[in-house]
Design brief:
It is built from 16 helices and 19 strands. The chain has helices at 3-13, 22-27, 49-62, 114-122, 140-146, 153-156, 191-195, 229-241, 254-264, 284-300, 312-323, 325-330, 348-361, 388-407, 426-430, 432-445, and strands at residues 18-19, 42-45, 66-69, 86-89, 96-100, 105-108, 126-127, 163-169, 175-179, 204-211, 213-214, 218-226, 248-253, 274-282, 303-308, 335-338, 341-342, 365-371, 376-383.
């Protein structure tokens, strides 16, 4: 540990905000991504914008690396301090500063928990649609940094579609505020859209203004069970071809269903090969009409049973079970590797078949769930990182899965980000020239590579 750096931070911010014990450093050496961890030199728990500014100024003076971190729920290694240095926690900036019902916007600090924001705006009859599976622990700052998706992305879009303005600090301690509450704003380059999804490699957000929409008046939840997972995949395209965009269209395969039922015990049939959990929302008449067409599409494409949730409580139970998918799978083996690919919706059956083929080829237990409505699938391997031979097979299986997703016109990440986990595949995805352009942009804002180093670009790309 660099003792002088910790001491300087303590003198500036107070000892209560500076964590330098081995236990504190260890607790912030990893996020929710398996197989990667690195010890920071020191951890700072910021509680004000001024704290963020002060840390960056000290780091600039010392030439120290800075890794921003929210709740640490990321799944691409985005908040792992690869090169040590300072981990800067923004979970103490938790104020909801303004809910503007007249202009349909909300302004928050980056440490606000996503579910807390949902509750605050819905209490006023408003709606913030982005809902990552980790919404009960993930922060808005992390969501913006990773451009998070969620269960409602099919109809409502992802985090970046709702960001109106950002207060951002750069690595040298300078600050820029870009964007307004205006729906239309084309003054200069759109730095707001650019900063969203940059994974903490360009700047650190201290204030975020988000667009809201009116809360939907009605909704209907439908559960369809299948004996053939490919039939479930075909149903997704069948629903869309009927000119229906559900608010949610989720898929779970047999491995995931069995694990969720073992964990949640809500009555899911363990013999089902797959299920679709679908929700439509909006005006009651539209919901009624769309619900009937969705049920029809499910039955015509091989659903063995289709049922509508009786009430809000049953709907909530079903969605809670879906959000438990990762936790349920994680109980099976010591290590759970959750991956993230997206393909065009018509390619879902072929992608699902490729995932199952890879799992069989490499003798792995793999469950798949995800946001089938937007083609975003999460093949999840249940393994044990202590078994190096099996981990080698896991890596080989995912290599084939990523390559197949790209070949189908898809992407290596729909919502988790590139981080450390996917940097190997980024040149394959976008081409070496595009990676070079990204690295040049990074160099303009962070010429010494001190802000969240080791993310997006492989070492040789710097």
């Amino acid at each position: 540990m660099t003792v002088p750096l910790a001491r300087k931070l303590e003198e500036l911010l107070g000892k209560e905000k500076v964590l330098s014990s081995e236990a504190d450093r260890l607790c912030h050496s990893y996020d929710a991504t398996p197989l990667v961890s690195h010890l920071p030199e020191v951890v700072v728990r910021a509680s004000t914008e001024e704290d963020v500014h002060a840390v960056l100024e000290v780091a600039a003076g010392e030439g120290a690396k800075v890794t921003p971190r929210g709740s640490g729920s990321g799944l691409s290694g985005g908040s792992v301090p690869v090169d040590g240095g300072i981990v800067l926690l923004t979970t103490g900036l938790i104020r909801i500063l303004d809910v503007d019902a007249d202009d349909l916007s909300v302004t928050v600090e980056p440490g606000v928990i996503t579910a807390d924001l949902h509750a605050a705006v819905e209490a006023k009859g408003l709606f913030y649609p982005p809902d990552p599976g980790s919404m009960k622990i993930s922060t808005i700052g992390g969501n913006v940094a990773e451009n998070s998706g969620g269960l409602r992305a099919m109809k409502y879009g992802i985090t970046g579609d709702y960001v109106l303005a950002l207060d951002t600090y750069f690595v040298d301690g300078s600050k820029v505020r870009y964007g307004t509450k205006c729906v239309k704003d084309v003054a200069g380059y759109n730095l707001t859209k650019f900063l969203v999804g940059t994974e903490g490699t360009i700047g650190i957000f201290t204030k975020i203004t988000l667009k809201l929409v009116p809360k939907p008046r009605s909704k209907k939840t439908i559960l369809a069970l299948y004996d053939d997972i490919l039939a479930a995949g075909r149903t997704v395209s069948a629903i869309v071809s009927r000119k229906i965009i559900p608010s949610t269209l989720e898929l779970m395969d047999d491995v995931t269903i069995a694990c969720v039922e073992e964990y949640a015990k809500i009555g899911l049939p363990r013999d089902a090969a797959a299920l679709l959990l679908i929700e439509t929302d909006g005006h009651p008449e539209v919901v009624r009409e769309e619900g009937a067409k969705i049920e029809e599409a499910c039955r015509e494409n091989g659903a063995r049973t289709v049922r509508v949730a009786r009430d809000a409580a049953e709907s909530a139970e079903l969605f809670t079970a879906r959000r438990m998918a990762l936790a349920a799978l994680a109980r099976v083996k010591p290590t759970t590797i959750l991956e993230d690919i997206t393909v065009p919706r018509p390619a879902i059956p072929e992608m699902m078949a490729a995932i199952r083929e890879a799992a069989k080829k490499y003798s792995l237990r793999m469950g798949t769930f995800g946001h089938a409505g937007d083609g975003n699938l999460h093949p999840t391997c249940l393994t044990d990182e202590r078994d190096k031979e099996e981990i080698h097979r896991v890596e080989a299986a995912y290599d084939e899965i990523f390559r197949k997703a790209i070949a189908l016109g898809g992407t290596i990440s729909g919502e988790h980000g590139t981080g450390m986990a996917k940097s190997k595949y980024l040149p394959m995805m976008v081409g070496p020239k595009a990676v070079e352009v990204m690295a040049r942009i990074k160099g303009v804002f962070d010429p010494q590579g001190r802000l969240n180093p080791g993310k997006i670009f492989r070492k040789e790309a710097h």
